[in-house]
Amino acid sequence: MEYSMRLSSLSLLLLVFLVVTNSNGEDPYRFYTWNVTFGDIYPLGVKQQGILINGQFPGPQIEAVTNDNLIISVFNSLDQPFLFSWNGVEQRRNSWQDGVYGTNCPIPPGKNFTYVLQVKDQIGSFFYFPSLEFHKAAGGYGGIKINSRPMIPVPFPPPANDFTVLAGDWYSRNHTDLKAILDNGSDLPFPDGLIINGHGSNAFTFNVDQGKTYRFRISNVGLTTSINFRIQGHKMKLVEVEGIHTLQNTYDSLDIHLGQSYSVLVTTDQPPQDYYIVVSSRFTAQVLTATSILHYSNSAKTVSGPPPDGLTVQIDWSLEQARSLRRNLSASGPRPNPQGSYHYGLINTTRTIRLQNSAPIINGKQRYAVNSVSFINPDTPLKLADYFNIQGVFSLGSISDNPTGGGGYLQTSVMAADFRGYVEIVFENPEDTVQSWHIDGHHFFVVGMDGGQWSASSRSNYNLGDTISRCTVQVYPKSWSAVYMPLDNVGMWNVRSENWARRYLGQQFYLRVYSPANSWRDEYPIPSNALRCGRAIGH
């Protein structure tokens, strides 16, 4: 009762504030109230402690329309601090709401915090997740669906239904045990299995009618493993990648790397029976597989036999598929103008940043690093330290623009960047495992990827006409991926490995995109409900 009354009062105050300050009513508001608890879950048939949202795992789906304002009131009923972050939501002018430790103080146990964010100029398929400690290994994630505004044309007819698929690897051990393994200086063991929407094999069913077309929004929400997604007997027409309408190429299967999201259209044009929906691990010596069921409403036959085999370790096939992803230049994005009207390849870059991952042993323990720097969390969120000018929390320039070639070391690494710059970022992977990189607050154009060592001559093979833009990109073993990125969003932004063990052990840093104007036009002021912690207490 106390919890409900407190949330009701808070929602009423927020509603009054929003009505007064946004009387023009241009962009709608959507309100969510979430209670975060621990609870028993059985994804792989073994009881373990999971993170639930309103008693659910996965959590409730966020459904929005371009430019909607989302008011998400989170009550932390765990016995430990907690934060949500929003994979792919750009938080325009508003890194205050990004929900990672570099920007936000954790929500204390038994306390409430309300995120106020806007899906400004965005469409597409994304997801949210717990960002602190190793909470992501306990669940607590859910889908985000941002639809186009009614007046904006979409380059395909409305589907009969719209399904979210949250798939990835899973461990039967509790998240605290996995965290202890990493804290003791070891790497994680091999995952125990894969799950689809919180379930192991054949425990989740997608119901369809024969002869109709359905949209599947697929995200890899796992911790360590790339996956391949396929539907037995059915082709998939790719239509969207992380907020960009694509050329509608047809695929039998799709590689989806850590943190990535895709949308496909599937037409149920096969004989009426049940079919396997399959995810399997990629680039692993042992192949993990999980299945769900595509159930025709007039089905005359259940699934039987083994699910269809998928690819295993074939890197060249995956690379060629990645290169085949192209932007639909004539389709409208979140705005009515065609996606091809932004000529990303004709803009001169202002800076080149080369980021190389490594796996150093530091003080006798396994760590991971970027340009030799293994990130350690400060005692105060970087955004608060920057805003209040608290000295000694971080130093700009504490990570180099280029690989150093030296040994790894611990540092709270922050890279300075100028608002409205246009940078070339080259992710270089000298290791023998696939990497997956994400940048908060931005999208970038994937202009090239190839094996071997990147050099200036590699630019001659860049796609400067119709590549996709996205927020998460893979880098194949002993390979590189290059992106062009407009620095069009002021704030403190996390650049991270989407391999959660590597991120936890240091393969991340923060990009401080700075504007000297100190204007609401460039960045919103600190929210009135911003939590204080560390050296920001009292400011």
UniProtKB/TrEMBL annotation:
<dbReference type="GO" id="GO:0005507">
    <property type="term" value="F:copper ion binding"/>
</dbReference>
<dbReference type="Pfam" id="PF07732">
    <property type="entry name" value="Cu-oxidase_3"/>
</dbReference>
<dbReference type="InterPro" id="IPR001117">
    <property type="entry name" value="Cu-oxidase_2nd"/>
</dbReference>
<keyword id="KW-0732">Signal</keyword>
<dbReference type="Pfam" id="PF00394">
    <property type="entry name" value="Cu-oxidase"/>
</dbReference>
<feature type="signal peptide">
    <location>
        <begin position="1"/>
        <end position="25"/>
    </location>
</feature>
<feature type="domain" description="Plastocyanin-like">
    <location>
        <begin position="379"/>
        <end position="516"/>
    </location>
</feature>
<dbReference type="Pfam" id="PF07731">
    <property type="entry name" value="Cu-oxidase_2"/>
</dbReference>
<keyword id="KW-0325">Glycoprotein</keyword>
<feature type="domain" description="Plastocyanin-like">
    <location>
        <begin position="162"/>
        <end position="299"/>
    </location>
</feature>
<dbReference type="InterPro" id="IPR045087">
    <property type="entry name" value="Cu-oxidase_fam"/>
</dbReference>
<feature type="domain" description="Plastocyanin-like">
    <location>
        <begin position="36"/>
        <end position="149"/>
    </location>
</feature>
<dbReference type="InterPro" id="IPR011706">
    <property type="entry name" value="Cu-oxidase_C"/>
</dbReference>
<protein>
    <recommendedName>
        <fullName>L-ascorbate oxidase homolog</fullName>
    </recommendedName>
</protein>
<dbReference type="InterPro" id="IPR034275">
    <property type="entry name" value="CuRO_3_AO-like"/>
</dbReference>
<comment type="similarity">
    <text>Belongs to the multicopper oxidase family.</text>
</comment>
<dbReference type="InterPro" id="IPR008972">
    <property type="entry name" value="Cupredoxin"/>
</dbReference>
<dbReference type="InterPro" id="IPR034273">
    <property type="entry name" value="CuRO_1_AAO-like"/>
</dbReference>
<dbReference type="InterPro" id="IPR011707">
    <property type="entry name" value="Cu-oxidase-like_N"/>
</dbReference>
<dbReference type="GO" id="GO:0016491">
    <property type="term" value="F:oxidoreductase activity"/>
</dbReference>
